[in-house]
Design brief:
Chains A, B: InterPro entries: Aminotransferase_I/II_large (IPR004839), Class-I_PLP-dep_aminotransf (IPR050859), PyrdxlP-dep_Trfase (IPR015424), PyrdxlP-dep_Trfase_major (IPR015421), PyrdxlP-dep_Trfase_small (IPR015422). The structure is a homodimer of 400-residue chains. Chain A has helices at 13-16, 51-62, 79-89, 102-113, 128-134, 153-161, 185-198, 221-224, 255-262, 271-283, 287-313, 340-350, 381-396, and strands at 37-39, 96-99, 119-124, 140-147, 150-151, 168-171, 201-205, 229-234, 246-249, 318-319, 328-329, 332-333, 352-356, 372-375. The first copy, chain A, has 400 residues and is an alpha/beta fold.
């Protein structure tokens, strides 16, 4: 593992286990064209974030006598926000802890549940930043394939029966990042059953769940019915990443440990942000769903514009599963003769940036290196068609 | 050490080292009267927090095209805020990292600098929550006395010469919590010289510095001139704890480690909060100092009202050093016959709540158990006089 810097004093084991960014998350890979179209991150479009309503909620919150939004609050979160979330999730309020966004919830799970060096079953392909999060506990990984219906629970069962023992399992159950697949409800039940049987904890990372724009939602009840599941969520993709506001539905028995840890780290999430968002959500009970409806329509339009564009500009070059939600397309190169790394470089030269599929593999046995992760959330349909055009040109540089 | 809960799986060492609250921080110690006057915490008064201006800044920030305040930002903090802080602190912007408040800065220091089990020299008496923060690294402590001029640097030097080796030292240099003493500039220089000589890191925790209402400021240059000092600060006591917004001026070589750690924990402080406060501070360059002037005048009035009240209501009972700043009075009981624990219970029965001095000892050799920590920040002068009256009645229950 590559360490980051040399310092005068020996660095503690916690810090020594943190590796330098490479591949995904490395901002220095190449120079971009000034007119580059960036399909890099799962970023919500500003046009579907309720900026004006947030400003209005802020004005109301700060006009309250004594401005309680500017004062200390409890580590678990403020009651109004926890209650709104608990009602929406259908769980007791005591099981909801407010976080500084979804990744923070995962970090709290990693630190609270895992002993250093523990084995953790993870998605393959995977949201790569979670692997970096696991470095907080210097964890080892057991990659489990993710297909068109989410993580392969049967393969996991086989591994467990064969004697593998994991302390936890990490998966994105809805609109998986990067593959966009969703784990069916019966497979969620089976996953939780395995957790109960073998005694591991499930980290269910669910930032995209509310962004379904086609089809029917799968149930989260299997997660909420178990006291071995941490169901990690966030307002990042719906109200804005910059708020840094999320939550975890977690087993009641684990709440005191999380509170003990957080009261030694950052104390509590910003009372100000929590109070503003609680005011936003409760003062107009229709606002959140109306916001989501606008977002879903926009992302459906963009997903289709990108898929249509690729089919028109590079006919037959990609196998494309149109996503039912989320912010990513995960097309597979049909022609094994195409050099995927060269394609990314040529695409960059043509003026389109994306994440290479290879960055998302957590182990062998995946076709991730034959895929591209194209994020369409914050790019207009017109620009997405232009991106497809540029990608087609990049492909033709390899004679495709 | 008392653990918090029993769970089904063994808990990791990180969590096992976190003890249950006792004394300071334990909210369950006693029932309070409904009309209790609470002198418990270093809480800024809402009347001197710029609520209206924060709401106005929010409206301007959220009206910006594309609402960048709602998007992801860099782990170190947004440039506008870091630059404002760097200019005020007189340090290069690269050495400023934005945090979720002062305690978060301390937690990052503990996790980045200390190996588990390290020895840390600490204030005695001490801000007790820092001892809980040290549990993140399961650290051992070497208590160093704090007198009328801050931490006893000569005693520290003697201990070091005698062979004690500490990985770090923790102190509150300005308006020490709880004792209100301030470390003179020459002692800051000597402290940093010892750090250089013996190779330890200084955690200088400075939340009250801007609240000087009498006398001349001591210099922070000795801290900023050394690459062994983490100078931890926050907007908590000046713009409001609920923002959860602070910063650390730290050695340049340590910044990548902090960024690596935080990018695995909470990613970055709320872009929204950072952008609002940067707008607040830069749109009217006079606002911050005008806010501080109002706050200082208020806290001076309150400190004096409380000291005057105690002298009038319990003549001769206390030795009182009037503070030059900060939010606490730290009077000493002159009569060794007074039972300090009983006094706190009697005061509670009379309707005044405070923190017993005994909660603040980090080791033997302090007179903390003969003292009271009375927080006056968020209580009116009239109520402070009533609190002094009630405390006088509580003393007379013991025949004083």
């Amino acid at each position: 593992m590559t360490t980051l810097t040399d310092t005068r004093a020996p660095r503690p084991a916690l810090i020594r286990a943190l590796t330098a960014p490479k591949g995904f998350g490395d901002q220095t890979l190449r120079d971009r064209r000034p007119d580059a179209i960036e399909l890099l991150g799962g970023i919500p479009d500003p046009s579907v974030l309720p900026s004006r309503e947030i400003a209005e909620a802020t004005a109301r919150v700060l006009a309250q006598p004594g401005a309680p939004a500017l004062q200390y609050s409890r580590t678990e979160g403020i009651p109004a926000l926890r209650e709104w979330i608990a009602a929406r999730e259908g769980v007791p309020v005591e099981r909801v802890v407010i976080t500084n966004g979804g990744f923070h919830g995962l970090a709290l799970a990693v630190q609270t549940v895992l002993e250093r060096g523990d084995l953790v079953a993870v998605d393959n392909p995977i949201f790569p930043l979670f692997l970096r999060g696991l470095e907080l506990s210097d964890a080892r990984i057991l990659p489990i394939g993710v297909g068109r219906t989410g993580i392969d629970v049967d393969d996991l069962a086989d591994r467990l029966r064969a004697g593998e023992r994991t302390a936890a399992l990490y998966t994105v159950p809805d609109f998986h990042n990067p593959s966009q697949s969703t784990l069916p409800t019966d497979q969620r039940r089976e996953l939780v059953r395995l957790a109960e049987q073998y005694g591991f904890v499930v980290f269910a990372d669910n930032p995209y769940r509310e962004l379904r724009f086609r089809g029917e939602q799968e149930s989260v009840e299997p997660f909420h019915d178990s006291d071995l599941v941490w169901h990690v969520n966030t307002f990042t993709k719906t109200l804005g990443p910059g708020l840094r506001l999320g939550w975890v539905v977690l087993p009641a028995h684990a709440v005191p440990d999380v509170v003990a840890l957080r009261s030694r780290q950052d104390g509590h999430s910003s009372t100000f942000v929590q109070a503003v968002i609680a005011e936003l959500l409760t003062s107009d009970p229709l606002l959140f769903d109306a916001t989501l409806e606008r977002a879903r329509a926009l992302y459906r339009e963009r997903a289709d514009a990108l898929a249509d564009g690729l089919e028109a500009e590079a006919p037959g070059a990609f196998e494309i599963d149109r996503p039912d939600g989320g912010l990513f397309l995960w097309p597979r190169l049909r022609d094994d003769g195409v050099d995927a790394a060269r394609l990314a470089a040529d695409a960059s030269a043509e003026g389109v940036e994306y994440q290479q599929g290879a960055f998302f593999a957590s182990g062998p046995g995946t076709d991730a290196e034959r895929r591209l992760r194209l994020a369409y959330g914050d790019t207009s349909a017109e620009q997405l068609r232009e991106a497809a055009h540029r990608l087609g040109r990049a492909l033709r540089r390899q004679g495709v």
